[in-house]
Amino acid sequence: MNAITAQPLTATAFAPFGEVLEVAAPPTKIINQGLCGRWHDLATLDFGPGGRAGISLFQAQPRTLPLQLEMLERHPEGSQAFIPMGADPFLVIVAPDAGGVPGAPLAFVTNGAQGVNYRRGTWHGVLCPLAAPGLFAVVDRIGATPNLQEHWLTPPLSVVAG
């Protein structure tokens, strides 16, 4: 089984796939009588024609590395943001598009204070928290048209710690 090594998540490395949601610089605005910092407009949300924004809560079972990567998915009709509701790292797997199928995947591990926003059509792995409770707020497209494509990997890949 071929392996990919998970590396720390950075905005630069993740840029081809979307945005890293994090507090990495001073706030862009100070609000609420100077008592609250606001990091404004951190992601390009895209819900396509006929879609609207929805906020859902997901709770996924924790995974461990090495992880067997069997499938990647994408959402052709809209972006998808994952915002952890805890302070634990999670695994992020993405791949460029290669003619309608995933290209070579990359794996990242968040620092526990980062979320991600996948651009519309970005191939990505399933939600992989590395600790319980695995609770996330998810902002994605709600609409009547199909918005999920899956691609099963043959053979599967192994994701290992960096």
Walk me through what this model shows:
The chain is mostly beta strands and 162 residues long. It contains one helix and 14 strands. It has one helix at 11-14; strands at residues 3-8, 18-21, 29-31, 36-38, 52-59, 67-74, 80-84, 90-95, 106-109, 115-118, 123-124, 128-129, 135-142, 149-160. The radius of gyration is 16 Å and the shape is globular.
Characteristic key phrases:
single chain, 162 residues, mainly beta, Jelly Rolls, seven-stranded mixed beta sheet, five-stranded antiparallel beta sheet, 14 strands, globular
Beta-strand fraction estimate:
over 45%
Care to count the β-strands?
A: 14
Helix content, binned percent: under 10%
CATH structural architecture: Sandwich
Structural class: mainly beta
The ordered string of helix (H) and strand (E) elements is EHEEEEEEEEEEEEE
Overall pLDDT level: 96
- Count the domains: 1
Describe, in short, the structure shown.
This protein has 162 residues and is an all-beta fold. The chain has one helix spanning 11-14, and strands at residues 3-8, 18-21, 29-31, 36-38, 52-59, 67-74, 80-84, 90-95, 106-109, 115-118, 123-124, 128-129, 135-142, 149-160. Strands 1, 6, 8, 9, 11, 12 and 14 form a 7-stranded mixed beta sheet that branches. The chain has a 5-stranded antiparallel beta sheet with strand order 2-10-7-13-5, with no helix packed on it. The protein has a two-stranded antiparallel sheet with strand order 3-4.
